[in-house]
Design brief:
CATH topology of the largest domain: Fructose-1,6-Bisphosphatase, Chain A, domain 1
Shape: globular
Order of helices and strands: HEEHEHEHEEEEEEHEHEHEEH
CATH superfamily of the largest domain: Fructose-1,6-Bisphosphatase, subunit A, domain 1
CATH architecture of the largest domain: 2-Layer Sandwich
CATH class of the largest domain: Alpha Beta
Helix content: 25-40%
Radius of gyration: 18 Å
Distance between the termini: 42 Å
Length: 277
């Protein structure tokens, strides 16, 4: 069974997780249903229940694939070993948990299929709108049944808009990027949900994003969606993005022209040619 034939059933699975585990808790979480799993990082009962539903469904559909869920990896980091071997499903049961726990949008449910480390298939579901974005390697990106293709035109400096996520950046890099970004583009607040940030770059409301922390379940789904739509996702030195790569830093851009503009005018000199940061 090819990945394309799985997309309708995967969409149903994401909607099932939304309907059974996520939406009933939105705006109704009790204090004991929210925990801190690491400094500044929270998890809710909805995350864990949604991950269980997704993992069970993926095992039924693809019994030979390994499964790496965000919450399972938090409890047992060793499951992330050998991510480049064979077929692996990545699960982000609620992307934007901070937003969700606070009773605000956006948040998303995301999955991605890796084969020998390469992203083959991804889905991003918005539980509130029921919109599901899907992408397959070599077959394009879709919002529902509509093909998504990004605008390949250059963007004027006056219009260039994007987010720079500095929370996890080393202070030396943050101090270099911040003033350059302020003069090179209109910097807007991040959406605090990669499952919304990538589509925003791909569908027109913003042109780029710079991330530092690049956990695979956060970025693999959106990376395939955006690149299949014609956008750019690459490391700060211009290297190709691979989910198993443990290095930090990611440039997400509407198109090649925007990526080159950001690399020239926002990223510090030398970032494109080394992993110094």
């Amino acid at each position: 069974m090819g990945p394309s034939s799985l997309i309708p059933r995967l969409s149903d699975l994401l909607n099932k997780a939304a309907d059974e585990a996520v939406l009933p808790r939105f705006g109704h979480l009790l204090s004991h249903q929210i925990e801190e799993k690491a400094a500044g990082e929270i998890v809710t009962v909805a995350d864990r229940d949604a991950e269980r539903i997704l993992a069970d469904g993926l095992r039924a559909l693809c019994p030979n694939a390994r499964i790496i869920g965000e919450e399972a990896a938090a409890a047992s980091p060793g499951i992330m070993n050998a991510m480049d071997d064979g077929e692996v499903w990545l699960i982000d049961p609620i992307d934007g948990t901070g937003n969700f726990a606070a009773g605000r949008e956006p948040f998303a449910i995301m999955i991605a299929l890796l084969r020998d480390g390469e992203i083959q298939l991804s889905l991003i579901a918005d539980p509130l709108s029921k919109m599901v974005l899907a992408a397959e390697k070599g077959a394009g990106a879709y919002a529902g049944n509509a093909r998504v293709r990004v605008d390949q035109c250059a963007v004027s400096r006056a219009s260039l808009t994007g987010a720079v996520f500095t929370r996890f950046m080393p202070s030396t890099l943050r101090d270099q990027i911040a003033p350059r970004a302020a003069t090179a583009a209109q910097i807007v607040p991040g959406l605090m949900c990669a499952g919304a940030e990538y589509p925003a770059v791909g569908t027109g409301s913003r042109h780029f994003a710079i991330f530092w922390r690049t956990l695979p379940w956060d970025h693999a789904p959106g990376a395939l969606f955006l690149t299949e739509a014609g956008g750019c996702v690459e490391r700060l030195d211009g290297a190709a993005y691979r989910p198993s790569d443990v290095q930090s830093g990611l440039l997400v851009a509407r198109n090649r022209a925007v990526a080159d503009d950001i690399a020239q005018n926002i990223l510090p000199t030398g970032t494109q040619s080394s992993h110094a940061f």
